[in-house]
Design goal:
The protein is mainly α and about 100 residues long. The chain has helices spanning about 5-25, 30-35, 55-70, 75-95.
Length: about 100
C-alpha cells in the first residue's frame, strides 16, 4: 500500500503518461535539458518521534558493529529493521 494519497498518486500517474508521450517525440539533448530544469519531487513526511527502550548491552554492541560494517548509524539500522518487520507483520495480517 502506498503512503501517498490517492489524489497525488493519480496526479503522478497522469504526469508520467504526459512525460512519456512528450519524451518519445524529443531528441536526447532536449530530454537532458528538460531533466536538468525539472524540480525534484518531495513528499512531506511527518516528524519522527524519539523512542526510548532498554536493551541488553551485548545486543547494542552487536547492532553497532553491524551498522559500522554497513556504514550507517546504528539508530538508522534499528529503524530500518523495525520498518521491515512492521511491513512483514502488516502483510501477514492482511492475508488473514
Amino acid at each position: 500500500m502506498s503512503r501517498l494519497p490517492k489524489k497525488t498518486r493519480n496526479s503522478l500517474k497522469k504526469e508520467a503518461i504526459e512525460w512519456d508521450t512528450t519524451i518519445s517525440e524529443e531528441r536526447p539533448e532536449q530530454i537532458q535539458e528538460l531533466l536538468n530544469d525539472a524540480e525534484p519531487f518531495k513528499v512531506p513526511r511527518p516528524a519522527r518521534q524519539p523512542v526510548s527502550l532498554r536493551m541488553d548491552p551485548f545486543d547494542i554492541s552487536m547492532i553497532k558493529r553491524l551498522a559500522r560494517k554497513k556504514g550507517i548509524p546504528h539508530t538508522q539500522l534499528m529503524a530500518m529493521w523495525l520498518r521491515e518487520r512492521i511491513e512483514r507483520e502488516k502483510s501477514l495480517h492482511a492475508s488473514e
